[in-house]
């Protein structure tokens, strides 16, 4: 077995706030290989903070500590900003939730992809090479008329197409690890399918590692290979996606039970009774 | 109880109407669902009924009688709305008590602290919440306040616009349970707009699937649950909602 793409041991993120320190992530450990790992949790569980910590994209008020935090052979805790800039985009890419807010509204999407490509290309690609790469990237994300789409501004494209453009832009750096933070939460269900199957295909074909951050347990169990369940900054349970139905932790069980189901009507939905002990015992 | 007939809403004189001739009727005590994707016009139907969209055509009927174009106190004392985003729908600088008292004042009803306390208790909040501000409340607590604000005038119909889609699933379950219980206890009639078929299936007896401003198909919930929808778009929506599993390469 080759070395994991991401290896985190006892990762802790503490934010300094006016009311004193807050531990957003507490002792999280996992290895990501060429696979899809889902991190599932509710608002404030720390799932996005884990993703940001891997790229060191946290604000100054955050202190990151870990026994080990290695991303693509680089010790993220020891790396200086210059090294981090070489890793971000080129080795590890981030797909965010809403393309509306992540794309530059006054630049055509093709130019935004080309800019990313040129920034990361080792041999300082010229405008023509960047243009060709952009069209190829757009084709990779299943945009069938890339010449036309490349000239459009973000407000002229739909949410699903915007997310595919975002994915093309992230692929432009040729990363081995993708962090996708709620990449389909802003999309309609029928569009969500397209984006997920695209991500699935790219991860399989290029042999990437994917960290899929989501609040949607049902989506993650179908899409990912393994799932980490986070609660109050801790991973309370880690299991194979196929074994979620046999989850042991009461929080995981409670989350599953509280979901309304199309085909299984229940008069009253079971609700979570949060046990303070969940915060402490892993 | 409440019905719409040939409702048409146009935001743009030249373009396609946002709502293009929608009709349905809801019996007292029932929950009717409107489901569809972004831009299908489902929320606009709700807002038009509430009188929040100027210049719609068609009728909104309450007990078979058309309501006035400019909705009056009599209408709002019987029909109230709960909005999607509990972060945006409460005034950030007013206490909960002030916000709960406002609809009473608007409708010229007798207020008083007792009624505010009762409304809070109805939605499962301690009366002590009356002195708090929205930023001191969680998302679920805010949505409870929004429901309390709608219920304080003792309406018969609630228009629910994606009432749980901004909430975590465990909180969603609590709010859906609260709505179910309130409907049963008070005989309320709900019109529920959602993009989530599971929420619609859980709450509604009957539903309509909307696309591009039109109702494509009306179904009772048994047919949705059995998967025997007729329109291809309804089938696509159902498949997409259920079948992330099909993505996995064999």
TrEMBL record, chain A:
It is found in: Cell inner membrane. One of its GO terms (molecular function) is ATP binding. Keywords: ATP-binding, Cell membrane, Membrane, Nucleotide-binding, Transport. Its main location: membrane. Pfam families: ABC_tran. It is a peripheral membrane protein. Residues 6-257 form the ABC transporter domain. InterPro entries: AAA+_ATPase (IPR003593), ABC_Ni/Peptide_Import (IPR050388), ABC_transporter-like_ATP-bd (IPR003439), P-loop_NTPase (IPR027417). Belongs to the ABC transporter superfamily. This is ABC transporter ATP-binding protein. It comes from Alsobacter ponti.
From TrEMBL, chain B:
InterPro entries: AAA+_ATPase, ABC_transp_ATP-bind, ABC_transporter-like_ATP-bd, ABC_transporter-like_CS, P-loop_NTPase. This is ABC transporter ATP-binding protein. It comes from the Bacteria. The keyword Aminoacyl-tRNA synthetase does not apply. CDD domains: ABC_NikE_OppD_transporters (cd03257). Belongs to the ABC transporter superfamily. Residues 2-237 form the ABC transporter domain. The keyword ATP-binding applies. It comes from Alsobacter ponti. Gene3D superfamilies: P-loop containing nucleotide triphosphate hydrolases (3.40.50.300).
């Amino acid at each position: 077995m080759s070395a994991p793409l991401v290896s985190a041991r006892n990762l802790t993120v503490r934010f300094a706030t006016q009311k004193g320190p807050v531990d957003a992530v507490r002792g999280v450990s996992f290895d990501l290989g060429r696979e899809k790992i889902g991190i599932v949790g509710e608002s404030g569980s720390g799932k996005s903070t884990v993703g940001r910590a891997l790229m060191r994209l946290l604000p100054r008020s955050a202190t990151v500590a870990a026994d080990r935090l290695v991303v693509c052979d680089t010790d993220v805790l020891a790396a200086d900003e210059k090294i981090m800039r070489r890793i971000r985009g080129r080795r590890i890419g981030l797909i965010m939730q809403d393309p509306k807010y992540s794309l530059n509204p006054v630049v055509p999407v093709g130019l935004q992809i080309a800019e990313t490509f040129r920034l990361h290309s080792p041999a300082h690609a010229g405008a023509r090479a960047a243009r060709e790469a952009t069209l190829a990237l757009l084709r990779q994300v299943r945009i069938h008329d890339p010449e036309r789409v490349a000239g459009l501004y973000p407000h002229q494209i739909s949410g699903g197409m915007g997310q595919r453009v975002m994915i093309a832009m992230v692929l432009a750096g040729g990363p081995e690890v993708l962090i996708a933070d709620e990449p389909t939460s802003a999309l309609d269900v029928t569009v969500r399918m397209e984006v997920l199957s695209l991500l699935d295909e790219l991860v399989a074909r290029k042999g990437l590692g994917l960290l899929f951050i989501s609040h949607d347990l049902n989506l993650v169990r179908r899409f990912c290979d393994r799932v980490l369940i986070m609660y109050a900054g801790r991973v309370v349970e880690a299991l194979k996606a196929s074994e979620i139905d046999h989850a042991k932790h009461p929080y995981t069980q409670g989350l599953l039970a509280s979901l309304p189901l199309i085909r299984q009507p229940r008069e009253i939905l079971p609700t979570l009774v949060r046990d303070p002990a969940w915060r402490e015992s892993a | 109880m409440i019905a719409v007939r040939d409702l048409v809403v146009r935001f743009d004189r030249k373009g396609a109407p946002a709502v293009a001739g929608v009709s349905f009727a809801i019996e007292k005590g029932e929950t009717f669902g409107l489901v569809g994707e972004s831009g299908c016009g489902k929320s606009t139907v709700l807002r038009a009924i509430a009188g929040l969209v100027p210049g719609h055509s068609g009728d909104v009927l309450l007990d078979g009688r058309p309501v006035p174009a400019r909705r009056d106190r009599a209408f709002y004392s019987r029909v109230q709305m709960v909005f999607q985003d509990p972060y945006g729908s409460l005034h950030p600088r007013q206490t909960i008590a002030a916000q709960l008292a406002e609809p009473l004042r608007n409708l010229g009803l007798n207020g008083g602290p007792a009624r505010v306390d009762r409304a809070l208790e109805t939605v499962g909040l301690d009366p002590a919440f009356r002195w708090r501000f929205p930023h001191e409340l969680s998302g679920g607590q805010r949505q409870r306040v929004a429901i309390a604000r709608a219920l304080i005038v003792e309406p018969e119909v609630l228009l629910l616009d994606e009432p749980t889609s901004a909430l975590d699933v465990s909180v969603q379950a609590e709010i859906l349970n609260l709505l179910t219980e309130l409907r049963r206890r008070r005989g309320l009639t709900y019109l529920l707009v959602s993009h989530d078929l599971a929420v619609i299936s859980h709450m509604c007896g009957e539903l309509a699937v909307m696309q591009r401003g039109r109702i494509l198909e009306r179904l009772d919930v048994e047919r949705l649950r059995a998967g025997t929808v007729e329109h291809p778009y309804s089938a696509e929506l159902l498949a997409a909602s259920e079948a992330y599993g099909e993505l996995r390469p064999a």
